Amino acid sequence: MKKRLLVLVAGFFFMFGTIAKADEGMWLLPLLKQLNIDAMQQKGFKLTAEDIYNVNNSSLKDAVIIFGGGCTGEMISDKGLILTNHHCGYGAIQQHSTPEHDYLADGFWAKTIEEEIPTPGLSATFLVRLEDVTAKVNEALNASMSEPERNKAIAEVGKKIETEATAGTHYRGMVRSYFGGNQFFLLVYEVFTDVRMVGAPPSSIGKFGADTDNWMWPRHTGDFSIFRVYANKDNKPANYSKENVPFTPKHSLPISIKGVKKGDFAMIMGYPGRTQRYMTSMEVDEHIKISNTNRIFIRGIRQDILLKDMLADKAINIKYASKYAGSSNYWKNSIGMNKALKRLKVYDYKKANEEEFMKWVNANPERVAKYGDALNLINDAVAKRKDHLHATQYYGEVFRASTELISFASIATQLVEPLKSGKKEDIDKVVNGIKNRSVNFYKNYSASTDRKVTKTMFKVFADNVPAQFQPDIYQTINGKYKKDYDKFVDDIFNKSIFVDSTKLYAFLAKPNLKALEKDPAFVAAQSIVKKSEDLYKVIEPLNYQLQKGQRLFIAGILDMNQGKAMYPDANSTMRLTYGEVLDYYPMNAVHYDYITTLDGVMEKEDPDNWEFVVPQKLKDLYNAKDYGRYGENGKMPLAFISTNDITGGNSGSPVINANGELIGCAFDGNWEAMSGDIVFEKNLQRTISVDIRYVLFIIDKYAGATRLIDEMKIIE
Fold first, then answer.
1. Residue 337 within any structural domain of the chain
2. Which residues contact 409 (CB under 8 A, 6 or more apart)?
3. Could you write out the DSSP letters of every residue in 498-539?
4. Catalytic (active site) residue 651
5. This model's pTM is above 0.85
6. Is 223 known to be catalytic?
7. In a domain, 412, yes or no
8. What tens digit of pLDDT does each residue of 216-262 get?
9. Within a domain: 118
10. Catalytic residue among 177, 402, 438, 651
11. DSSP letter, residue 635
């Protein structure tokens, strides 16, 4: 099995034995030499596989980080300077913003190193090495295991491998599964927790176009921000201290301002979050009709309420900016994905592939024994969990994500048993946990806004979830309140101790069960949690059945395609994708060029629309054509597209040219290929990146932060 998996090129069209375009694929770095380097060099890449990934010497992988918990960033100086997206740094920028110092609206630029702002909770994680541990994990597994038993065994042996690999070091180990649990790698990381905010353009640049332009090309968004990693005097990770100094990375990316041309080699390294390229037709149907449809509907309603309040009140805008952005991003992604999945007839395509797979399986009795039940397991689980999946998603989107007060109150369910037992140690532990959670909750919370959302959401849930799946609290709403959702919610917000920190902290100073169980927010939360748990008990064995079917299906696909190179789905571990800078034709008679310029910002300007406001200084620079060394032929390049294969988590990833130099920062995919997480469409799929020349132009000419430019190695 190990040998077969190592010979794993691409492609989503693997079932028919064809090799997809080389631009498809999220490749594992240790396997580049066997699988990819020849193809990369044929496309123009001038370096070696060792230049990309090397355990013993510095390489490109040493310049690429996990930024925070869900984005990518890159080292752009030998003093720990990080480049990532504006939307990746958005939470940190919001964290430091106040109505008096609104860095979201106005931008922020530290004039000196002393002015760089510590950002608690933000981390920069470097990959030290990758190691195939499939054989070690498989020793702990056997065919008779159930999926829960298998998962437990994998977790136990994984923990042992992680511990052995990092013993006596400050490194962190992690064993991750690939190919649906058919392959395993150990990843060793170095994590830095002193990360400081250095610079960010105003949202009118970093978020230009906002929701309207999100996932769209042509794009004119300067989606970048700047941070810095700090270390102790030995260049090792350390908690924040005034004594810490800028980190010296093993490698930082030189920056090319020579520009990009159609057909130029483009490589992206980063941490793509999740793809589902092996999803079956039944799962695609489920994704369209349940997961995406519910997300679109529920988030759309909530976002309308939030945006109205945000536009009316600057303080609320700051509190909810990051929440709104996080919600709207995948709300619009789901809209585009459903359109693309339907337009490209992905269900039919998957169905045809499955028929080919079963022909291959049925041609051999041994294959029937191994893989014959795979699709049946998947299809049966998907069919049986339909109603429960719909309900559980509503619980997640409505109660966990939208009704903030009730979601926050739910953490107090952990306090019930300690209060019953009376053990002070256990009580104090939970109390301290609630206090810690409360700091960020109240900092970014508006009770008046949440009250509006909650009133709407309780009705939305009632209208769309059958009574048998509703929590018991709806019996109270239907009886005592006669379905008056407004009155019910007003009672919660008027009477609950969770509404403000003063009331909550007074309760936590002397917590008692009687008061807690009378609190209306807690009563609602407890009812919701209980029913949600009951529903999960029903759906959990079906999820395990689905997991087994997927594992067997992917194992069969690997077997069916022995000798062909294939890549695993994204799972938030470092990957490489390579392609070229290229235009595209989204539909008949329509052509999109591969690059945009500052001209497009001025064409889109609308001072009456918050999404398209243009700062006066940017207009002045444009009118004077004052682009410095970053312009080209009287134009200021802004963004470009390439054929690279990326997904969520790749945001902030470096776009690297054939010489290993930075040419852009990836931040988005294109609308026409929103089905990309499930199927790569080689003629349509494009990565949208901000041109590094525009990044430097904003830093230098707009912000005047020349000290940062001076740190960088710029290739002209």
1. yes
2. 496, 498, 519, 521, 522, 524, 525
3. GGSHHHHHHHHHS--HHHHHH-HHHHHHHHHHHHHHHHHHHH
4. yes
5. yes
6. yes
7. yes
8. 999 999 999 999 999 999 999 999 999 999 999 999 999 999 999 99
9. no
10. 651
11. B
